[in-house]
Design goal:
Length: 152
């Protein structure tokens, strides 16, 4: 299982591309997710989204609890109105740290590696990581939060 090269730099076009939903969980998708998982471990990251390894599928890896979990076609269906601001980094933006306000709790729907729909309610750091990775799948980076005022 190869460790993939992580795309870095705010000016990389792939990081700004909106990803496409996966129609079916194929062998190719499973291999991509395995490689992405290895890459997340090697980079000591909390998550990794497909555009960061130069791919356009709507998939990512996130650390939920202590487990790295692959999410296929994730969609956040609920954002708590309560937000919290915390400093975030990104494997694609070395040495950049930005205060990002995120909902404290969310509900995320996704497919697991068997193509079965799952729904999870997440809080705190788990919710933050998923929001960060789903942003990547929309072509959004932490830099986009740079000019937001801090929430009260
Ligand atoms: Zn990131």
């Amino acid at each position: 299982m190869p460790v993939l090269k992580i795309v870095t730099g705010a000016d990389s076009p792939i990081l700004r591309k909106k990803t496409k939903k996966v129609a079916k969980v194929t062998k190719e998708i499973l291999k991509l997710l395995k490689d992405m998982q290895e890459t997340t471990v090697a980079a000591d990251g909390l998550g990794l989204a497909a555009p960061q390894v130069n791919r356009t599928e709507r998939v990512c890896i996130v650390r939920m609890g202590s487990k790295l979990t692959p999410l296929i076609n994730p969609d956040i269906t609920y954002f708590s109105p309560e937000k919290e601001s915390a400093e975030e980094g990104c494997l694609s933006l070395p040495n950049v740290w930005i205060q990002v306000p995120r909902s404290i709790s969310i509900v995320v729907k996704y497919w697991d590696t068997k193509g079965k729909e799952q729904e999870r309610m997440l809080k705190d750091i788990d919710a933050r990581v998923v929001q960060h990775e789903v942003d990547h799948l929309e072509g959004k980076l932490i830099l986009d939060y740079d000019h937001h005022p801090k929430p009260m």
